[in-house]
Prior knowledge:
The chain is α+β, with helices and mostly antiparallel strands.
Amino acid sequence: MTTFRIGEAAELLGVSADTVRRWVDAGRLAAGRDAHGHREIDGVDLAAFARGQAADPDDRSDASSARNRLRGIVVNVVKDTVMAQVDIQAGPFRIVSLMSREAVDELDLRVGSLAVAVIKSTTVVVEHVSPPGASRGRQGS
Length: 141
């Protein structure tokens, strides 16, 4: 069973440790205590809470099959004669999009613009990250 300490849960949820403590104290997020008296949150409970905290998709999501929509601010635009790179900061996430210069100009994307990155992909790479202090040995061969 994977468990997370308050600080780890806060980092995963993108909030402060104090916010997570308040949620636990208010009964919104279940937590127990480890052998040393430190609060810990079960990974399954944290995942359910995170799903419940997910922002509602914006109004245009019903017109698209894409469900991964991250609202953010444009922090950089680099254009050449044909292509452009647009960097969006969406909370703790940096999204980089390569698109035609024409599209950037038509959308009037500039540093400081509000934008929504819509992610629709047939390939998504997912990596498992062991919690701090977990054994990193290989099993089997």
